[in-house]
């Protein structure tokens, strides 16, 4: 399936989580066998082209896409977790949300020095989560050549923020004005 065909599968939910917001819901995409497989194949092709030796995904929907891409490539998956979820010593990064902040953690032993790790997530909006994940991976010694997403909301500028940090960004589809 083409990215345009995949875009037609994504459900738009009006006025969620607040009036005036059009929420792009990937539940319909991951529930569509052929569509989900095609999205994973497209993302895996891009990760392979970036030289990915591992794939990192952020909790929770990044686990869905990232783990599937890692399996497709035959490489390891690095879970980027919410605080307190890993049973070992971790490194962490705080990042800004629209109303406050949050934190991500990784096991620094999950990546090797110099290893090329592609970030994979369902959606890029402001880029805060992906930037925090990239900072953690780099702090652990990895290279982050690319960040790959099923959906980009370009008006929110997240992809540009990642590019400013030297990370190539690709998305299978874009939804303008959101």
Automatic annotation (TrEMBL):
<dbReference type="InterPro" id="IPR029057">
    <property type="entry name" value="PRTase-like"/>
</dbReference>
<dbReference type="InterPro" id="IPR000836">
    <property type="entry name" value="PRTase_dom"/>
</dbReference>
<keyword id="KW-0328">Glycosyltransferase</keyword>
<dbReference type="InterPro" id="IPR050054">
    <property type="entry name" value="UPRTase/APRTase"/>
</dbReference>
<protein>
    <recommendedName>
        <fullName>Adenine phosphoribosyltransferase</fullName>
        <ecNumber>2.4.2.7</ecNumber>
    </recommendedName>
</protein>
<comment type="similarity">
    <text>Belongs to the purine/pyrimidine phosphoribosyltransferase family.</text>
</comment>
<keyword id="KW-0660">Purine salvage</keyword>
<comment type="function">
    <text>Catalyzes a salvage reaction resulting in the formation of AMP, that is energically less costly than de novo synthesis.</text>
</comment>
<dbReference type="Pfam" id="PF00156">
    <property type="entry name" value="Pribosyltran"/>
</dbReference>
<dbReference type="InterPro" id="IPR005764">
    <property type="entry name" value="Ade_phspho_trans"/>
</dbReference>
<keyword id="KW-0963">Cytoplasm</keyword>
<dbReference type="GO" id="GO:0003999">
    <property type="term" value="F:adenine phosphoribosyltransferase activity"/>
</dbReference>
<comment type="pathway">
    <text>Purine metabolism; AMP biosynthesis via salvage pathway; AMP from adenine: step 1/1.</text>
</comment>
<keyword id="KW-0808">Transferase</keyword>
<feature type="domain" description="Phosphoribosyltransferase">
    <location>
        <begin position="32"/>
        <end position="144"/>
    </location>
</feature>
<comment type="subunit">
    <text>Homodimer.</text>
</comment>
């Amino acid at each position: 399936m083409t990215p345009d065909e995949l875009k037609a599968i994504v459900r738009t939910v009006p006025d969620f989580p607040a009036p005036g917001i059009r929420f792009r819901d990937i539940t319909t995409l991951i529930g569509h066998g052929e569509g989900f497989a095609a999205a994973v194949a497209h993302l895996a092709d891009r990760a392979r082209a970036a030289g990915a030796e591992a794939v990192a995904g952020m909790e929770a929907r990044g686990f869905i896409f990232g783990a599937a891409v890692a399996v497709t490539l035959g490489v390891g998956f690095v879970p980027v977790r919410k605080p307190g979820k890993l049973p070992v010593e971790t490194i962490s990064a705080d990042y800004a949300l629209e109303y406050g902040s949050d934190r991500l953690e990784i096991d620094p032993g999950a990546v090797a020095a110099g290893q090329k790790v592609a970030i994979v997530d369902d959606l890029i909006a402001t880029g805060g989560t992906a930037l925090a994940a990239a900072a953690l991976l780099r702090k652990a010694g990895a290279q982050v050549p690319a960040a790959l997403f099923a959906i980009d909301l370009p008006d929110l500028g997240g992809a540009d923020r990642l590019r400013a940090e030297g990370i190539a960004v690709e998305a299978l589809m874009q939804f303008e004005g959101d």
